[in-house]
Amino acid sequence: MPRPPQSATSNPQSAAAGPPTEGALSAVRSVDLPSLSVSYLSAEPDVQEPEARARSKPNDRAARAVICLHGFPDSPRCWAALLPALSQAGYTAYAPWLRGYAPSSLQGPYDVERLAQDVLEFADHVSPSEPVSLVGHDWGAVITYAALALRPE
C-alpha cells in the first residue's frame, strides 16, 4: 500500500503535543498496561462542534472507538489516512504498535493468542464500558480474528 504524503496533519512526528484537532493524528502516545507498554497514534472527533457531536454517536449500538492493527512489517503509520477519516466520521480511532514493534514492548511471547490478549487489554483501556471495532491488515487481521474468538462481544 503506498504511503500517504507527509504533512503536518498526517505525520505524527510533527503533530503538536496536547489534544489533537479533529481529523489530525496525535503525537505518539504510550500507556503502561499490566502485561505490556503500548505506544499508539490516535485521532479524535471534535465533540465541541454540534455537527461533530452528532457524528460522534453513529448509532446507539455502534462502537465509538476503532482500533486499527497493522501488519508485518508495517507500523501504525500505515493507517495515517484512515484514522483522520474515522475521526471526521465521529469515531475515536487508535493504531497501536503491536508487541515486538518499538516503541511498544519488545519482549515476547509473540503467539497469536498473546497478541490478541494484548489488543483486548488495550481495548479495555481505551473504552472500558463501550464496545470497540477492530480493523486488521495482514498480521493485524489474524490478531483481530483471534481477539474476536476470545471475546466475541
Blueprint of the fold:
Blueprint: E1 29-32, E2 37-43, H1 50-55, E3 65-69, H2 82-88, E4 92-96, H3 112-126, E5 132-136, H4 139-150
Parallel strand pairs: 3-4, 3-5
Antiparallel strand pairs: 1-2, 2-4
Helix pairs in contact: 3-4
Offer a concise description of the structure.
With 153 residues, this protein is an alpha/beta fold. The chain has helices at 50-55, 82-88, 112-126, 139-150; strands at 29-32, 37-43, 65-69, 92-96, 132-136.
Explain this structure to me?
With 153 residues, the protein is an alpha/beta fold. The protein has 4 helices and 5 strands. It has helices spanning 50-55, 82-88, 112-126, 139-150, and strands at 29-32, 37-43, 65-69, 92-96, 132-136. Helix 2 (82-88) links the parallel strand 3 (65-69) and strand 4. Helix 3 (112-126) packs across helix 4 (139-150). The radius of gyration is 15 Å and the shape is globular. The chain starts with 28 loop residues before the first strand and ends with a helix. The model is unreliable at 1-22 (pLDDT under 50).
Summary keywords:
153 residues, alpha/beta, five-stranded mixed beta sheet, 5 strands, 26% helix, globular
